[in-house]
Amino acid sequence: MEDARVFVLATSRPDSPGGWTAPDSVHALALEPLEPLQADEFLDHWLGHSPSLADLKARVAAQSQGVPLYLEESLRTLETTGAIVGSPGRYSLGKADARMSLPATVHGLLASRIDALEPGPRRVLMHAAVIGTSVDLGLLRAVSPIPATELPSALARLEQSGFFARSRLLPNLELTFRHALVQEVAYATLTKRERQPLHGRVLHALRRRSDRNLPNRAELIAHHAFYAEDWPLACAYGRRAGRRAEMRCKHFDAGRFYEQALKALDHLPDTRRNTQRRIDLWIGIPLVLLPQGRQLAGDPLEEARDMALGIGDRIRYARATSLKASFQWVYGVLDGAIALSRSALDHLGNQGTMELRIQGLMRLGGMLVDKGHFPEAQEKLEQARSLALANAPRARFGLTAVAVAITAAYQGRCLAELGRDDEAVRVMLHALDIAEEVGHAFSVSSVKVHLALVHIIGERFAEALPLLKDAVTITEATRLHIFQPITLGALGYAIARTGGAAEGARLLNASLEQAHILNHSLPRPRILNWMSDLALETAQHDTAIGCAAKALSIATDAGQLSEQGWSHFALAQAFTATGQRREAMEHLAAAETMSRQLSMMPLSDRCRTFRRCLAASGPVT
Predict the structure, then answer these.
(1) Alpha-carbon distance 355 to 403, whole Å?
(2) Which of 83, 88, 59 is nearest to 71 (CA)?
(3) Using CA atoms, how far apart are residues 391 and 407, in angstroms rounded to an integer?
């Protein structure tokens, strides 16, 4: 029929010479690559949130550069080869030895395009691939397989063919591979014997450059030194690049550089200095795993402790011990963590550096907050904060966050539980100013989460909301998994208490599942008590009792005294709602006892108010 309505959809690559060009009357829609956050959401949706997939996700995201086709093909290959096992949304790492190779269809497509090039441009493309996905023209000249006079025309041909795009003109010309997979395929066509001297030539050229016109020079030197097998430089610059990445909250990159530096050390002489470097790296790698919520493979910190004792290095022994305590803390071995942390401080005696003393005091104080020993926690945290403020208010002192910020985060929570609410807010707002001035994402999110918890303890839910929304955005963007369960749970509770019951319940359930996936037991009692509180408001009495009872059980197993107190109070409320007055009075008495023993003023006030309400309703029968 001549008047039939027909919808025609055509696709074309705008960078392909000689391709179809749509007429002006046709509506054109540019399909841009996914943004990094969108690619992360895609991978989280299809793979799930298992911590074992963190490295794999980062590699897939980096390779795909946001192209959905390549993301999908990569995931299909991962499943086919057994690299991942499970079902959509609930995958985990499969075969330990499974290698992530490119999907055959994509690899074949790219390889055929490269093979179709003329010999000169093809060789330039392969040599450029040695430099990386971004290619500085000065570095390319150092490895160019053709005369310098022929290089511009070869590059023009590669740009025209869609392999390269100009990404920077000043202070020096830089080209970028249109797709990271193109760089990988081109690099793979070179043998290891061909690659090593090319990496060496790039390294030689890098050493003649300055950081001023090549901002990522340290990272490039670390990379090329490793593959050129220049082991002294690979070790030195691997550590330097790792520290730079750590400061920028790029913890995955930091771990990769540290691991390369550690491998380089295997090729260096067994001297005392190199032993100290090995200990430092065995401490550095776990330090960047911690914010990601990733557990240790093996026990490098125990090896670091043994090696430090072997060479009589008390300082490094204390550093390794303190960090080992942090891992136990995060994964719920609270009493063991406190004992290790005290041991680290005792082992230092009067010999410890300012950095180690601040580390030890901050970690011990934070553990004591989660334990519920608030007066001692406040003492330790105030010592750490005062030392940091007096010496370098914006420094990290070897911690994963700015020392003043992370110390004030726990101190604020501690002060709020002690009933010193105004002081808590004042301390934390000052720390937030410092964290935002430094621009350190982990520090900012740490303070905002704990400041929101202070507001929740004070029942100022509207004030907690913007802080928690910001913290969720930061933790998702930077993959700071360590605070995700408590952040999501607090956001859900605050949303529910300000009118969004359905959305709040969804986030609380998600936070509980996230805590389970990450194997983080410490946030679970508080999340469950929030769920119990909300269940009471909707007359789901059995659910309220079940959540509070489970919270009490988990808190008891972990030794969280303060959470036990709040759980007893939640049970007292839930049993009262079902008419079980005797059980309610027993749990209320337990909550009152714990609030007195731990100096928990907000809990004590609520227990007192609740007891008056019970007394007004008649005697217990």
Answers:
(1) 10
(2) 59
(3) 15
Asked whether the beta carbons of 255 and 59 are under 8 A apart, the reply is no
**Whole-angstrom Cα distance, residue 505 to residue 525?**
16
Q: Which of 562, 164, 611, 148 is nearest to 369 (CA)?
A: 562
pLDDT in tens, 407-442: 999 999 999 999 999 999 999 999 899 999 998 888
For 27-46, what is the mean pLDDT?
83
567 and 529 in contact (C-beta within 8 Å)?
yes
List the end-to-end C-alpha distance of the chain, in Å, as a whole number.
86
> Peptide bond preceding 466: is omega within 30 degrees of 0, i.e. cis?
no
**Has residue 311 got a pLDDT over 90?**
yes
Task: Kindly report whether the global pTM for this prediction surpasses the value 0.90.
Answer: no
Contact 411, 427 (CB under 8 A): yes
Q: Sign of torsion, CA 67 70 72 74?
A: negative
Q: Compute the distance between CA of residue 151 and CA of residue 143 in angstroms, rounded to an integer.
A: 11
289, with CB counted inside 10 A (0-12, 13-18, 19+), is buried
Contacts of 187 (CB under 8 A, 6+ apart): 126, 129, 130, 195
SS3 246: helix
> How big, in percent rounded to 5, are the helix, strand and coil portions of the chain?
70, 5, 25
If we measure between CA atoms, which residue out of 483, 510, 319, 357 comes closest to residue 409? 483
* β-strand partners of 165: 176
